[in-house]
Specification:
CATH architecture of the largest domain: 3-Layer(aba) Sandwich
Structural class: alpha/beta
Strand content: 15-25%
CATH topology of the largest domain: Rossmann fold
Largest sheet: 6 strands, parallel
Number of helices: 15
Strand order of the largest sheet: 2-5-1-6-7-8
Number of domains: 2
CATH superfamily of the largest domain: P-loop containing nucleotide triphosphate hydrolases
Helix content: 40-55%
Length: 357
């Protein structure tokens, strides 16, 4: 029977919650504990044909922990992207959904020492069916750890607002892990910011420095994720991508914009030959051409020469941007380099003994 359910939550996307969940699962397994995983409410996130209605976090954790449960047990409620209300009757009894979550947890908790429970990117998702994370945490009697992206002093307000929400539902935050902390602000977070947080009874369990290379992907990984087609520059598919830029301005404005960035991918319409040539001149890492619009043939040899992949996709620029933002920082099951990197960061900067009690 489970000794400890740990609920990992966040207030926004790109906090690094999923990466820390993977690291904790790996570290606790390494320590000889049997670790289970539950995602009460998932969001379909796969772009792979035939896998559109699957939550990738669930697929990754199922692979890493070698879980034999069906996905609908690990993730009893799945929202289809950002348009899902049609799947839920307005007049339905919301207690039915909490019961599904309780049943799933009961099945999973029977054979594990620790169950890691992961919320969606915003812990209030599920409120429309009476299942926000604070309420679920209370029902499952779970310790709640907030993974918060550490940016500046306003981070304290985000954490205290989260604590207020949990108290309202009859539970509390057990602690917070400050993640992706800018290296030039580490000492500030260790000092006055930590003091303000702990003054309100919230334990700071770790302060993890930002690691740009942990978030970096290759052009090949982005191309595979979004299902793009490489038109030229195939020799540059291993170029590192750290930043995303949208080319929707004049070439004169774009050149300054592109040169200020480092290891960037530029998203622009395939018919914007002027922007494509400007991006090539600026030395970007890759260019994504949207709308299934083929570029002028004169840009193809230049992309080959400079080893800058030109990747064609059928989506509009806004949709493409959303997809690429979704994959930046996401860890795949076979991505040993990133998994080991995040494990090392958690071991070095998080108080694991305090988490385990």
């Amino acid at each position: 029977m489970v000794r400890k359910p740990i609920y990992l939550v966040s207030t926004e996307e790109l906090s690094g919650k999923s990466a820390i969940t993977i690291a904790l699962a790996s570290i606790l397994t390494e320590r000889g504990l049997k670790v289970g995983y539950l995602k009460p409410i998932g969001i379909s996130s796969s772009l792979t044909y035939g896998r559109e209605f699957h939550d990738e976090d669930v697929e990754i954790m199922k692979h890493i922990l070698k879980l034999e449960y069906a996905e609908d047990v690990i993730c009893p409620i799945l929202l289809k992207g950002d348009e899902f209300l049609e799947d839920f009757a307005v007049s339905s009894n919301t207690e039915v959904f909490m019961e599904k979550i309780r049943d799933a947890y009961k099945k999973i908790s029977e054979e594990f020492d620790v169950v890691l429970i992961e919320s969606p990117h915003n812990f209030m998702i599920g409120s429309f069916i009476g299942c926000p994370a604070p309420k679920v945490a209370r029902e499952l009697n779970a310790d709640v750890i907030l993974i918060e992206k550490a940016e500046n002093d306003f981070t304290v307000d985000n954490i205290l607002q989260a604590q207020d929400n949990y108290i309202r539902w009859g539970t509390r935050l057990s602690g917070v892990i400050l993640n992706r902390t800018p290296k030039d602000r580490i000492e500030r977070f260790k000092g006055i910011i930590k003091q303000f947080i702990e003054k309100h009874g919230i334990s700071v369990l770790g302060i993890i420095p930002d690691d740009r290379m942990l978030r970096a992907l290759t052009a090949r990984e982005i191309c595979d994720f979004i299902g793009g087609r490489v038109l030229a520059g195939k020799d540059g598919l291993d170029n590192i991508i750290e930043e995303i830029l949208v080319g929707a301005m004049t070439p004169e404005s774009a050149i300054k914009y592109f040169r200020r960035a480092l290891n960037e991918v530029v998203i622009t319409g395939g018919d914007r030959t002027d922007i494509i040539l400007t991006a090539l001149e600026a030395g970007v890492s890759a260019i994504i051409l949207t709308g299934n619009l083929y570029p002028s043939v004169k840009v193809l040899p230049k992309a080959d020469q400079l080893k800058v992949p030109l990747i064609l996709v059928p989506y509009d620029t806004y949709t493409t941007l959303q997809y690429v933002q979704r994959v930046i920082g996401r860890i795949k099951p076979k991505d040993i380099r990133r998994i080991n990197a995040v494990i090392d960061l958690v071991k070095a900067h998080v108080n694991l003994e305090k988490i385990l009690g």
